[in-house]
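re: ur question from earlier - yeah i can do the single chain one, its not a big deal. heres the input i used so u can compare w yours
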Amino acid sequence: MEQEKDILDEFISNAKESIANGYYDRNPPIISNEVKKKSLVEKLKNDFVLICEIKHASPAGEYEHTGIDARKTAIDFQINGADAISVVVVQKRFNGDLANISQAREAGLPIVFKDFIFTKKQIECAKRLGADVILLVVKVAKRTGSNMSELIDYAHSLGLEVLLECYDAEEFAIARKTNADILGINNRDLRTLKVNLARTQEILQNFPQVNKPVISESGIVSAEDVKRVRTAGASGVLVGTAIWKAVDLGEKIRELRFGGQ
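and the output i got, formated as tokens:
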């Protein structure tokens, strides 16, 4: 039987190519250090959080949109009940654009810089564009041999919060011992892109005492799904594909918001 292709290797290779071609050195609008950051951690202290994602295309081929207005979309997210916005800046397969970060900021919500990050250059770019949070992935750090704790500390030194993503119980055990501000559980296997929504529950039932907020990511398509992961112990959800496949973006966000109440 032919072994499935490990897609994460492709993602990492594409990120290395973007670094080499100067993608992160481009100069979109620079945000002043005096601009007040929006804290996702503070929002998580008060309520269950819905993070909506600006993602131009699904790498699994579920959809692809052209001409997304990131500013308008971010404001639509905010109006319909989003608590924060994740912006995918990955070029290949996701069609991401760094300029979407500063555009999305206009909604006034915390902005998550979502990428396959394993270098300080990428973190510096997130800071320069005005992101509030960066996503780090345990499996990416392992694959690239990067020092995860060093990257977390560097992000903190720049005033950025860190969402550290895991896929299984072993990675979660590692992540909860780091200085990351928020833990993420990705229900989508980055190696195959297959989704298993039960993964959040399976991991959290092994860790009854978690001293950091947990975000359940991927595979959430309905209010019932939101309720399911909230009952399992998640403090919030990150949703992209379900929003972009919906007939009415606003209606879908309101539905997901209801599931978190």
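Residues 7-20 form the longest helix (14 residues). not sure if urs matches, ping me
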